[in-house]
Design goal:
Layout lengths: L14 E4 L7 E4 L1 H4 L2 H12 L7 E5 L2 H13 L2 E7 L7 E7 L4 E7 L8 E9 L3 H12 L3 E10 L5 H4 L5 E6 L1
Parallel strand pairs: 3-4, 3-7, 7-8, 8-9
Antiparallel strand pairs: 1-2, 4-6, 5-6
Helix pairs in contact: 2-3
The structure holds adenosine monophosphate.
Adenosine monophosphate binds next to strand 2, strand 7 and helix 4.
Length: about 180
């Protein structure tokens, strides 16, 4: 197992890519961090930190899968993917929500979470909070209890934290 990194070192492993995927957006690319095993391990530990007594970790497509799956293993919880529309087989629940431009739909498999299960939601970036709030809504639709949301980084100017005020949420880094 690799040595962990000081959390302050993580920020320099996140690459800012201007005008991606469209003009005016600064994309926060976590690929260099994922490629560094010590940094990746530090992030997984940090995201799992608040995960006591969690039955399921829901990772949001797609970087939430990469971060959420090791968090689930570390906490002894199951992993459940929240996917974009049309990707999951069988019966699903879905919710439409607003993006900065346009709309998106997220889905969970109907049997993925049992009533009363304690759920931690994981994603890489908290921006406006629309994606995370929609995921929390899906979990609750299935009868799950959202006990926390963990993000690698939060873009504070977009005030996603306010949107999630009803929930315990934490971000390892703030921009
Ligand atoms: P939001 O619903 O506005 O909070 O957007 C969060 C979702 O969009 C997350 O799944 C992120 O992966 C992605 N996202 C939003 N803004 C960015 C950004 N500037 N850089 C990287 N990913 C982003």
């Amino acid at each position: 197992m690799s040595a962990t990194r000081d959390p302050h070192d993580l920020a320099r492993l996140i690459r800012d890519v201007p005008d991606f995927p469209e003009p005016g957006i600064v994309f926060r690319d976590v690929a260099p961090l994922l490629a560094d095993p010590a940094a990746f391990e530090t992030v997984v530990e940090g995201l799992a930190g608040s995960a006591d007594g969690v039955d399921a970790v829901v990772g949001i497509e797609s970087r939430g899968f990469i971060l959420g799956a090791p968090v689930a293993l570390r906490t002894g919880a199951g992993f459940v993917p929240a996917r974009k529309a049309g990707k999951l087989p069988g019966e699903t629940v879905s919710v439409a929500f607003a993006l900065e431009y346009g709309e998106a739909v997220l889905e969970l498999q109907a049997g993925a979470i049992a009533a009363g299960q304690r759920v931690l939601i994981v994603d890489d970036v908290l921006a406006t909070g629309g994606t995370a709030a929609a995921t929390a809504q899906l979990v609750e639709q299935l009868g799950g209890e959202v006990v926390g949301l963990s993000f690698l980084l939060e873009l504070t100017a977009l005030r996603g934290g306010e949107r999630l005020a009803a929930y315990r949420h934490r971000s390892l880094l703030s921009y």
